[in-house]
Design brief:
69% of the residues lie in helices and 0% in strands. With 274 residues, it is an all-alpha fold.
Length: 274
């Protein structure tokens, strides 16, 4: 499944004449294959249960597989870095051991940031509701695709922070800090080779709405809605009321009202729930 997904993901860039990162795709596929090889035989045979029991210690089994998989990924990443250095010329190659140490350190930092920032399901909820609001406002085709990708990656700038945002909720941060995180996120998205339009939306999501394209206005408003729902400000109705109070500067009134119509048709629930 992972190999098929990587192949399908390579089709759009290829169709636009852009290069794809075959090394990264191979690394992902091999890492997932390693995880499956570690987990499935032990789980299916019952050996994992015999080793760890079926009580409170059983979660140690998937955690051990996760740690081994992370190490496997670091090994592959270091090999790719050394291979790239060799391809650049006959200069001195960096020692593989130091490259591996760097990858393990980076992996530990990124893993901590991911675990400490974005709440589970937040990006998926924001993307699902942003698409619905985009359709409500007339977005179709490529513009809707850009909106979806930007919504899924809107919080990626938090991975660059030394001090994680509590609960991953950026809606209550000062405007300058929101913009800094948005710019960091846009820079990360651009380095992944994603659509530049999606990167621009990520970068602009914290700007005053009058300076934003429509996709950035939608991401800003839907993200704030999900953050406010998570803070328990009176449920969906209370979150919508907070957004309406911010239409003078923070949120475009038409986007807030489109959000209200979408939620009313599907029931006033948290983004993407139900």
């Amino acid at each position: 499944m992972v190999a098929a997904a990587q192949a399908l993901a390579a089709v759009p860039p290829r169709a636009r004449g852009r290069r794809t990162d075959a090394d990264r795709a191979a690394r992902r596929t091999l890492t997932v294959g390693f995880a499956a090889l570690c987990f499935q035989p032990l789980y299916a045979s019952g050996q994992a249960e015999r080793w760890f029991g079926d009580g409170p210690y059983f979660p140690l089994f998937p955690l051990a597989v996760l740690a081994l998989t992370a190490l496997c990924d670091a090994v592959l990443a270091a090999l790719l870095v050394r291979s790239a250095a060799r391809a650049e010329g006959p200069g001195a190659l960096p020692p593989y051991g130091s490259l591996l140490v760097d990858e393990v350190r980076a992996l530990a930092g990124i893993g901590t940031a991911i675990g400490a920032t974005t709440p589970p399901g937040h990006a998926r909820r924001v993307a699902a509701l942003a698409i619905a609001v985009g359709r409500e406002l007339g977005l179709t085709g490529p513009r809707l695709t850009v909106l979806e990708h930007a919504a899924l990656m809107h919080d990626i700038g938090q991975l660059s922070l030394v001090d994680p945002v509590a609960g991953g909720a950026t809606a209550r941060l000062p405007a300058a800090e929101q913009r800094r995180i948005a710019l960091l996120g846009g820079a990360v998205v651009r380095r992944t080779g994603a659509d530049p339009e999606a990167a621009a939306v990520v970068e602009q999501q914290a700007d005053p709405y009058r300076e934003q394209p429509l996709a950035a206005r939608i991401v800003r408003t839907v993200n704030a809605y999900d953050d406010l729902c998570g803070e328990g400000v009176g449920g969906p109705l209370g979150a919508l009321e907070q957004l309406r109070l911010g239409t003078g500067h923070d949120h475009q009134p038409q986007v807030v009202e489109a959000l209200g119509r979408v939620l009313a048709r599907g029931g006033l629930t948290r983004a993407g729930a139900g």
